[in-house]
Amino acid sequence: AAPTAAATVGAETTPARGGEVGRRAPRPVRPGRWRRRLTGVAAVVVLAAAGGVAVELLVLHRSVPRLGGVAVGAARAEVAHDGLRLVVAGERYSISVPTGAVLAMTPAPGTRVARGSAVRVVVSRGRPPEALPKVAGSAAAAAVSAVRRAHLVPSVQAVYDPTVPAGTVVSTSPAAGPLRYGSTVEVRVSKGPAPVTVPAIGGGSSWSSADSALQAVRLVPVETYAYSDTVPAGDVLGVTPAPGTTGVAVGTHVTVEVSRGPRLVAVPPVAGDSIATAIGALRAAGFVVTEQIGPPFATKATTTLPAPGAEERPGASVTLYVA
Q1: How far apart are CA 200 and CA 90, in angstroms?
Q2: Cβ distance 194 to 162 under 8 Å?
Q3: Torsion sign (Cα): 292, 294, 299, 304
Q4: Fewer CB within 10 Å: N-end or C-end of the chain?
């Protein structure tokens, strides 16, 4: 038999029957297989492109760091390290975030932003100022409570005051607000008037002058009386507490002893007594019998001069009348 005709170009050669070499018949081309191959290649190209974009996005974008409570200087350094910019957009009071630390921020932490983007922050001004309550004239305990409610720290100081009653607030320092949160306020509480010194009241001063001097320093004079053989009646014998005594509380009673003059003694009645008995009674009362008037041989006393019952100073002279 004649040799088999050659196959289409590209077909494999195989031995033919009878030892002759021939070519295998070509396989028919299937259109679906080429489309699948092209689709796979396209997918690889798309994935490669997408991967490149993702890598580029990772390089060009940053995640906003968490800055709440961070000092503004440290926050600025942190965002700069991530290729971002810090912009201080304002300040606001806060009772929890320290002064100079980040209170709020935009965008929120974790947000992906382009490299070089601005992170806007609001910085804490610290705790808000507080109004100082008006406590002058209040009781000390009420004033301390009011100051504490205003988030201020009271420091009680006792002071003397000539007009404000003891235990009442005289004033505060500082006198008015607003004050920084937690500031110390001195609360001055009256101890009443300052102690005084007993004024100099010399012996022989009159009662009226002593009274005026004591009242001038807000002491209370109390008048008492005593006899004196040396100080005229109406003059001061002594003062208790003594003049010059310091630290005496205002309103203290001060005793002023005023002379009544010498003690007077009533002339005793001697009418009907024997002369010896009458003279003895007069002498016992402190009188001196200087004269005896009557008959030479009289035995009875009749009266005296000064008359019986009259008050005289001891040692006074008495005339005895006899019959």
Answers
A1: 70
A2: yes
A3: negative
A4: N
